[in-house]
Each structure stands twice: as C-alpha cells, then as structure tokens.
Batch of 2 targets.
Target 1
Amino acid sequence: MDAADKKRKREWKDQERATARAAFPLSDDLLHSLFDTVAAFVAEHGCDHTRRYTEQWLLTHPKSHDTVISWLEENGGFCDCEVEANASDHWERNR
C-alpha cells in the first residue's frame, strides 16, 4: 500500500468515525454513565437477556427513550450484556 492509499484509508476511517459520532444519541458523558451503570449491574446480578438495567438508567435521564433504544439496537445492544459489550464497544471505538 503506497502513501496515497494509506492517506485515503485514514481519511475514510476518520469519516466513518465522524459519522458514527454524529449518530450518538447522548453526550459522551451520558453514554459513559449509561455503560458504566449497566456494566456494574450486569457484573453484580448477571444479564437476564432484557434491557432491564438500561431501561432503569433511561428513566432517570431526560433524553428520548426511543432514540437511545434504536441506537443501541443498531449497535447490537438487545439486552444489557450486549449493551455493555457491543454498543459500548462501538462508542469506545468512535468517540
């Protein structure tokens, strides 16, 4: 791969990250709080294959529930352990 190809690849990756960041449904601080909270509950109580802990967190924060849930599902967060693993990973890679 020559220098021009590397530059195009880096620019493409940068654009992909920017697109992903623009789609985040919450600020980085709130997403960090969501993922930390869910991870702590899953570590302590396990995952019952619902988004019970995610839903509890959403009840205490004034953002659009449906928007956040849609974004989580788009990024593999169909239950609390997947929110912790998949959606959190997507956020970490792109923030």
Target 2
Amino acid sequence: MATRKKPAKKAAGKRAAAKRAPARKAPPKTALTVTFKDTRRKPETLRLRTAAVGLTVNDLQRSLRWYRDVVGFVVTDEWQVEGRLQGVQLRAGAVEIFLDQDDWKKGRDRVKGEGIRVYGRTVQDIDRLAEGIKARGGVLSHEPKTEPWGERDFGLVDPDGFKITVSTGM
C-alpha cells in the first residue's frame, strides 16, 4: 500500500511571498563610485533638540496667570523656597518657559523684557489662536498678519515686557 504525504502548509502573509520570490542579483559593479562628504565639523559642534527660555518676573503669580490662563501654557513643574512659590515650568507643545520670581537683589527698578523676543511656531490656525487669547483677556502687540516671507504671525507682550511672536511653521 502506497503512503501518501500530506501537502505542506502554505506560509501566510508577506513572509511566504518573500520566501517564494526568486533571489535578486546584486547590481553589477561599475567604475563610478559615489561618496558623500561628511560636512560636520570635527570635533562635532553642538546640536540641540530643544531649547527653553527662563524669565525673571516681577510678580510670579500674575505672570503665571497670564501664561497659563491667557496664552495657554500648561504648568509642568513648580518649586518653592521656604514654603513660598519661587518658580514654575510651563510647556506649550515642545516649547518650555521657566518663570522665576525676582529676588530684587539687582533692584526693584530693573527693566525686564528689553532686547529679547521669544519666537514660537505652530501648525495651528494663527487667527483662531489670536482670537482665543483676546477672548481670555490678552492684548496683542500686533494682529495676525502675513509677512512678506509667507509666514502668518501675531505678537504679544507679557506682563514684564517680554515680547513673544507666534507664527505658522514653514
């Protein structure tokens, strides 16, 4: 009596197709060789993935309310000194801002916000963001506008005079 073999099970999916496909030959070697020059400096220069700004403010509670309740940042950390709130870490997307209460060691009349502007880019609707900020009591330093280079942006000034520009990403 003849013995009959059971047919082998077929492998499922892409793996089976890959096993059945004929082996591909390597492309023929040619005299042309392409090399890519590594243009990075040696030793390698600094390459950051994120950046944050730290701002010393006159009234931490007022600034916290403005950044959180008006602009839309979220508090991710806070720290206290002798039981009193001394600073907060805020985040909006990948952007972090640290607010620290001024200790007044450099005088109470120290001017803040001069010579700095914080730029933030978003894929969100600039006009809608600006309207939301205004609806929550914020004042824009300039209304949404399209710049000559194509970005749409608006400006804000925080309670201590720090300037912020929010724009569409390119």
